[in-house]
């Protein structure tokens, strides 16, 4: 059972006071630096709880992403793959439930509302950096799937998301300001580059445990990614399923076009630690190159320079 009562709250408040604080994105809520990354306090509380209490099972599958890198999509894909024998494609829960409710975040809701894992669909999700994952995730040998995305697209998506949350407008918080902070590494779960690199290195060191996908590659070639994902999750598509176009059906069910038009995703809400969030916040453009419409050439070049500098020794690029 989780241990988070009044005592836990006080302990957390005390810890928070010892951490570096960076405001900027959504004052009055600050970001705090913990283990080299920046977090909003409600997420950080969940991370600290998870680090103390989360018990990973060997058959867990943890979907890891930085915010705005493709979480909603990978949750839907993994859920559709693992649930395909229990539901046909016309009655899949994804048609009536946003993928964030089908696959829970460890630090947001799982750790606070301890529920049993479904042995058929043992999916959990997290935005935690690799180096901050609870120790039991390393020890259990469970599988991890990471989705990384071009940092330029992550920034633009994050900026729109936060504007839509309504705490600021474009005049108070222009993209130039968001860009500056993002490049400095001061963004939710940032520095983004370190986040992606942590999982990239892990995927090279532990390829049987950690699968690394890129959003742009998934958009370009969803078919081979869905097949690879199914194999990695231990449920490859059979010849018969392939002949029955099951791969294409998963892709269609989870596509931006399908999901963004569903009633539940147009009008529904999910709980988040601080407030309910409209499901439609998770569906904006769903494209790889929309950033060109929002970043100047100089802004894009600065991000690319940082990417080269951070990633060049490790063979990662977007
Ligand atoms: P854009 O803002 O660039 O459109 P996350 O799910 O990690 O919060 O990321 C949200 C981003 O993924 C948004 O990007 C959103 O539009 C996009 N997205 C959501 N569902 C998607 C899907 N099924 N396929 C592709 N992209 C999707």
TrEMBL record:
Indicate yes or no for the key word tRNA-binding: no
One Pfam family name is Sulfotransfer_1
Domain Sulfotransferase per the UniProt entry, residue ranges: 58-315
Q: Which InterPro entries match?
A: P-loop_NTPase, Sulfotransferase_dom
**Where does the record place Basic and acidic residues bias?**
1-9
Q: Tell me the keywords, alphabetical order.
A: Transferase
Q: What is its EC number?
A: 2.8.2.-
Which GO molecular function annotations are given, in alphabetical order? sulfotransferase activity
Q: Which family does it belong to?
A: Belongs to the sulfotransferase 1 family.
This protein is called what?
Answer: Sulfotransferase
